[in-house]
Amino acid sequence: MATVEIVSSRHTLFRIFYRLGFTPWDGHPIAASLQELVEELAPGTALDVGCGTGDTSIYLAQHEWQVTGVDFVPKAVEKARAKAEDVGVRVDFRHADATRLTTEGVGTGFDLIVDNGCLHGMSDDDRDRYTREITAVAAAGARLLLVEFTPGGSFAVPGIAHDEIKRRFASGWTLVSTGDESWAKNLRHYLLQRAGT
């Protein structure tokens, strides 16, 4: 029961933020780590988890990726669809929860999964579910790019530490690289690769 209440509260809070137009997480620069990765990889299928109003999804689509963007706030998804239409790119935006990807029909076999600030705001239980769900929808050999605040890095989110990311993704994933993102203090990226070819 407590887990349901926490998830419901998180959903309600973000719905209120979008209704008020208070979305400080939107409009930030595309992560330098993502830009580097896109230059390195051949386009394939991508999942943008916690896509917000779609900036990362649109960036990927503009670089020939076949993109699915998911967010649990309907208003965010509506705005993302409008943005994509305005710039003339195709993105499959869906209302879905990152902790329930396999039951919400977003698909599987993604070559690239990108998370710009979704995992760092979750409770421990949600982080457990998130890790299972991300692994379930990732292709063998997939890349996972997490861009997250470290603990104490933002007043609005708990953040996530390097050691926790390594622990949570220890089964089936390898941490390939990590580093700071320049556009915000205490923001780091973590690039992981799933086992398999």
What's the short story on this structure?
With 197 residues, the protein is an alpha/beta fold.
> Which residues form runs of ≥5 with pLDDT under 50?
1-10
> N- to C-terminal separation?
40 Å
CATH superfamily: Vaccinia Virus protein VP39
| CATH arch. level architecture | 3-Layer(aba) Sandwich
Tell me, rounded to a whole number, the average pLDDT.
88
Structural class label: alpha/beta
Into which percentage range does the β-strand content fall?
25-35%
What oligomeric state is this?
A: single chain
Radius of gyration: 15 Å
In which order are the strands of the major sheet placed? 3-2-1-4-5-7-6
Number of domains as seen in the coordinates: 1
Describe this structure in words.
This protein has 197 residues and is an alpha/beta fold. The chain has one domain (2-194): 3-Layer(aba) Sandwich (Rossmann fold), CATH 3.40.50.150. Helices cover 36% and strands 25% of the residues. It has 6 helices and 7 strands. It has helices at 2-20, 32-40, 55-62, 74-87, 124-137, 162-168; strands at 45-49, 66-71, 92-95, 110-116, 138-149, 173-180, 187-194. Strands 3-2-1-4-5-7-6 form a 7-stranded mixed sheet, with helices on both faces. Strand 4 (110-116), helix 5 and strand 5 form a beta-alpha-beta unit. The radius of gyration is 15 Å and the shape is globular. 40% of the residues are buried. Mean pLDDT is 88; it is low at 1-10.
